[in-house]
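Take a careful look at the protein record below. Let me know whether the structure tokens fit the sequence:
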Amino acid sequence: MILEVIATSVADAIIAEKNGAGRIELISGICEGGVTPSYGLIEQVVASVSIPVNVMIRPHSNSFCYDEWDLETMLTDIRTVRRLGAAGIVTGCLTPERKVDTELLEKLLAEVGELSVTFHRAIDETDDLEGTLHILAQYPQIHRVLTSGGKPSVLDARDEILRLQAIELSRPIAILAGSGLNLQSLASFIRDTGVSEVHMGTGVRRGNHAQDKVDPELVRAAADVVAGFSK
């Protein structure tokens, strides 16, 4: 079991690690769904924690559709993330028809090298979650998919998460469940779905406010829940 926590600052990342998080998703613009953080922030976070840090590669929050200039920005960001020593990236790209933009995705994946790749909640905007998962499983660089099962809150998508996990894919790809999880719902959600990775942001922040700091007590409590399913 892995608890991934969203960090938007060095303090967030340190608090998350000290209180049991197993991985960091590093972003800026949390209220916009996350965009690429500054290079300085990436460098400081990677130097400050020992757990894996996965960095958002998203040049803007306008959509998940990207033009040629966006692509060049994303490629530069990926190269920089590799140089700064992060463990992975979190990214995703769609066509205007809400399908995976495989042409652009393959250009991004050609630059990732040893980085682990998470395809983010762009999948939740596609019309066919299961078909999209099959497409993503064709790429060995993609290790997991962050999804809310196509719903605004993953708490309303237990059946969808179960179906995604039951799909027989060409190779293993982890379902990282996120969006809407909180301490009150975490144990029952894991029990109902059997997921091995969960992703928390607002649910482990003070007062459950997106723009407030990560709360050490909430992270510790969430980590204890997750640890209970690892035994």
About this structure: The mean pLDDT is 96. Helices lie at 10-18, 39-48, 68-84, 102-109, 129-136, 158-166, 183-193, 216-228.
